[in-house]
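PROTEIN DESIGN WORKSHEET
SECTION A - STRUCTURE
LENGTH: 512
TOKENS:
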């Protein structure tokens, strides 16, 4: 009797282990790597003016081994809203996180909940920036707020409750946040509790967010190099509002309140040209030194997966929460709907279904990230509240006839921090239409003083660097009218109708 019972227990255990092993093998591990403000045009694989500097060899390897999205856009180019969109699969106006003041409570951390339900062991390590505890993850170790570049403190899931549960990196030798975050993720990968499950790890770097502080070993990187400048740093043609001064903070001394020369302690007695050139060189070198630390960390994680034999069974995604202006049109920071701020890098490697060297030209945005990751996890029925769709068919090289041909964008944080007026717009395959409505509305943190409304229209086929605003060009009048209709239709489709804002409806009626 005892022998039979023992045999049954052993057989049951073997069957369970066999089932668990098959379950894990059928699902890939998923590693979602995200940096902060890492502009696509500072990644070598994107082939910009900075590619000659070889800034990102490990990311370039990922792109060579997998797929690179050429037209991946954010829906609100600022840290907290972009992260909220990724974790909820919703636009800012839907999830309620329109500005840096927003937060996502544990019950609304949809992506983590769905991954756990799909059988994954989940972890969030690095920059979180959504204020509330990331309690939907099995494990977390996240920076408080923006976090420190050196000797950072993390909030860790453990016996102590949020936000008092801390782990500190420090000592005689300083540790850079990129190195600390890489170290933490490697520790978790090596020691995670349930190795029978596939893992879902959100591995998020603080770098290269300003104010830029690179690891000390990179202090002299690019010291003897002149960083290539964008032509629009010096000559903006007719970019921007017609007949008005440009908004936004600057590389040069154009914005007297805040410019990169201030950040980089450039001698204000220099001529305007010397001041701008020195500001730009210091800016780009500090930024790219931070990028180097991120790329090295990515390389270390890839090497760990290679050594453990998990590399080819792991979906590796690299992205950033938005783009960044690197001197184009004499702008710094992000927030804009202009290409360098709007475009997100998106590189993904998974050799079991993605052919090496694939470049995807279709328009994708960050509401698509959550459904894509869940699709890789084998989830068949997506949450009804998602507003995007999986891009996995595109990554597998399939033709998708009904794929979107445009992307909606909205920036709410009117004139805060970097002097960007509130605006929304549409980015199609050829054109970009932006309406700068210039009102604070009810966006927390927005400045209260309104700016004059204006339109900007760019023909990206003939003007990829957005040097000529065509909003008042007679030859483009019919296109302008057509795009305004498309913009309103898209606002209706995504549910951002502004009916609760009488002031904006009045401005729009007058401007349109």
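SECTION B - SEQUENCE
RESIDUE ASSIGNMENT:
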């Amino acid at each position: 009797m005892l022998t039979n019972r023992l045999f049954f227990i052993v057989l049951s255990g073997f069957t369970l282990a066999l089932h668990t092993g098959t379950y894990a093998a059928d699902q890939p591990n998923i590693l979602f790597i995200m940096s902060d403000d890492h502009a696509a045009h500072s990644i070598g694989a994107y082939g910009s003016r900075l590619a000659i500097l070889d800034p990102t060899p490990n990311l370039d390897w990922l792109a060579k081994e997998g797929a690179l999205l050429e037209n991946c856009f954010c829906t609100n180019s600022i840290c907290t809203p972009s992260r909220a969109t990724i974790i909820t699969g919703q636009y800012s106006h839907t999830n309620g996180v329109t500005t840096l003041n927003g937060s996502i409570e544990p019950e609304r951390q949809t992506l983590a909940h769905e991954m756990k339900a799909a059988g994954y062991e989940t972890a969030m390590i690095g920059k979180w920036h959504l204020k509330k505890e990331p309690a939907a993850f099995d494990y977390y170790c996240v920076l408080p707020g923006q976090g420190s570049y050196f000797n950072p403190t993390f909030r860790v899931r453990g016996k102590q409750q949020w936000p008092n549960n801390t782990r500190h990196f420090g000592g005689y030798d300083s540790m850079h946040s990129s190195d600390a975050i890489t170290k933490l993720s490697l520790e978790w990968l090596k020691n995670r509790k349930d190795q029978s499950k596939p893992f879902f790890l959100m591995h998020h770097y603080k770098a290269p967010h300003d104010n830029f502080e690179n690891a000390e070993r990179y202090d002299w990187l690019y010291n003897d190099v002149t960083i290539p400048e964008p032509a629009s740093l010096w000559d903006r043609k007719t970019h921007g509002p017609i007949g008005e001064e440009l908004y936004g903070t600057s590389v040069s001394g154009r914005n007297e309140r805040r410019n990169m020369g201030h950040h980089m302690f450039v001698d204000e007695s220099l001529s305007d040209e010397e001041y701008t050139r020195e500001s730009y060189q210091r800016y780009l070198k500090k930024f790219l030194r931070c990028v180097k630390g991120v790329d090295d960390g990515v390389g270390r994680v890839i090497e760990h997966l290679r050594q453990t034999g998990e590399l080819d069974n792991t979906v590796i995604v690299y992205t950033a929460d938005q783009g960044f202006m690197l001197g184009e049109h004499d702008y710094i920071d992000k927030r804009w709907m202009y290409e360098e701020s709007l475009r997100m890098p998106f590189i993904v490697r998974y050799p079991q279904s993605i052919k090496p060297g694939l470049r995807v030209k279709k328009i994708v945005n960050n509401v698509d990230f959550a459904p894509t990751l869940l699709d890789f996890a084998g989830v068949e029925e997506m949450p009804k509240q998602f507003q995007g769709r999986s891009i996995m068919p595109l990554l597998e090289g399939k033709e998708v006839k009904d794929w979107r041909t445009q992307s909606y964008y909205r920036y709410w944080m009117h004139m805060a921090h970097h002097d960007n007026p509130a605006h929304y717009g549409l980015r199609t395959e050829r054109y970009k239409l932006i309406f700068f409505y210039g009102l604070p509305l009810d966006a927390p943190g927005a400045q209260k003083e309104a700016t004059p409304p204006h339109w900007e229209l760019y023909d990206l086929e003939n003007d990829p660097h957005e040097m000529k605003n065509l909003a008042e060009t007679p030859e483009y009048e019919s296109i302008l009218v057509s795009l305004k209709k498309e913009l309103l239709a898209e606002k209706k489709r995504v549910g951002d109708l502004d009916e609760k804002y009488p002031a904006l409806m009045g401005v729009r009626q007058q401007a349109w």
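SECTION C - NOTES
The two ends are 85 Å apart (CA to CA).
Confidence is low (pLDDT under 50) at residues 1-24.
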